[in-house]
From TrEMBL:
Sample GO molecular function, one term: oxidoreductase activity
Protein name (Swiss-Prot/TrEMBL): Amine oxidase domain-containing protein
InterPro entries reported in the protein's UniProt record: Amino_oxidase, FAD/NAD-bd_sf, Flavin_monoamine_oxidase
Domain (Amine oxidase) ranges: 103-468
Amino acid sequence: MSDINYPESALTCVEVGIANMRQEFNSLIVFVLIEIFWELKNLTLVELSREIRTMEWPSSPRNILCLLLAVAVFSVSCCSRQESNKNVCRLEHDVAIIGAGISGAYSAYKLRNEGLDIGIYEYSDRIGGRIYTERLPDIPDQYVELGGMRLINQVHVLVQDLIKELGLTETIFLYGNDSTYPDTVFRRNVSMTAEEFRTGDIPYDLTPEEKENQADLLKYLFQKLTNDSLDNVTIDNVFDLTVPDGRKLYTISFPEALSLIASPEAQRYFLDESHYGNDEISATDVVYEYFGAHVLDYGKDDVRSIEEGYNQLVNGSIHRFLEASTRHSIEMNMKLEAIRGTSGKYILQFRRTVTVDDETAELHNRESMTKVCAKKVILGLPKYGLSKVDWRPLRSRRYKDLLEGTFSAHTSKVFLTYETPWWIEQSRYPARVLDAAGLGEVYDWGQSSETGHWTLLISYNKLKYTDNQWVRNTGLNSSLLDGSIGGSVDFEEENPMLTEPDTILPRIPGSVYGENRVTAPLKDYLYKRLSLAFGIPRCGIPDPVSSIARFWIKYPYGGGWVLTRPGYTYEELINGYRRPSDTDDVFVVGSDYTARDMTGWAEGALWTVERVIDQFFKPNQTVV
């Protein structure tokens, strides 16, 4: 930063320019002004975002003069700086952790008392990653979970241990725990209870043999296909299963496996609205997830959440980390672009970012790049974010092949609040949990004890169904989505400064601003399907009081979790991901790099951290 003291009148003038230019000019100019303002006031990026959102000034020709003054002052500021040594690091750490999601936070938490200088660097202004807890204004006592939201009792033991250590409170995940209103399934314009869908009359013309085994049809079909009882499927022997033509089951997709044994109608019975209806998903993913020896017969009371909000797993871990030593730090709005150097002396190249209304974009002035040194590096990044880091081992043929072994599943959630629970009081098919065509999963989220308003998770969706909703909500073209690796690559590259999504499609009344807004085309699309599924006229569904949506598509996430492609084993992926180079102290952690039963779960992220810490930071301990 320059040591020049700017007059208060100049600062005020720049503030006016930014506030009004945001309304009157495109996003590129807005971000130029943001960078100038950042230089002048020396604000943190979080403070800057808040400053810009809250300023309200009348429009005036004076704005143009303010803009010119800001540019002039910024030029003086830049010219007053001396060129720094390009290889000098601003900070030096024993360990640099990239990403403030659950894997990065837990890495810091586990190392907090090891006497190390540790720094966390986060791309946005928010801690949590894909664990994202929010509150809406009319339900102040309720948390809406836009990302991770559940754990399984006695299965997710690492998460449960962390909850206890942080002094948090487990609570039963009540949504759907209501025998008065059985869970409902909606297929082919027919609503039925989940039990009827499993054992009763359904709108699918199954063969007599399939109908006879309908109650456990998936297992029955795969027992025939593999000539195996599937009563003791483990993470190892699942890859020994074969199909009648001699091929290994893990080399073919789930839809292809079904086509070898099931009737066309039975195939649709399993694939309609399923995220497994994709030719790039390994059949082994399904068999291991449903029939693996790790699968326990747990009841609804074993599905838990966290009373204080799921994001407290992350917030609490980072709080304990920062408390443990003054040598620990966290810095927000820092995007890792490249890693250089060798073991013990890595140079991490960062680009500063700015976040406004949950939309993060890169800064591109001469001061936006910075370097940090570290002896060891932990990359707590989703697979898509990891694929964008410029480091030679990540670009190797071997590691790129490992990254191709999975693909990121786009996921989304849409929450709306209402004055009454119309899906119970006015519905022909009342239900608190619904699995419906075009909607995915629908959950009655409960009633606010403060305002009496009700919350409905109106859609929890995946893959092509998420893509369809994203296109409707943004008004952008589906060609911008790269479904094979996750992320909207073209969108990121062609529109790096886009921070005004409302200029394309305005949000509906009561919606949050910015990236998580809900627009009219998405609401109309969802309402049409709700009308059919609940048996209520479209006009009978009231407008929401408030709303919020989250699409897990863009950088650095690329999706909510990953699915395995045919031809890859869990062992080669898990062991290969952990350390990209045998001669480097750079390690990869996160739920994208674990076995199928744990991908997308916080437990999977913690599991990878435990393995890395035990093997490379505390090598005298036994590695499981």
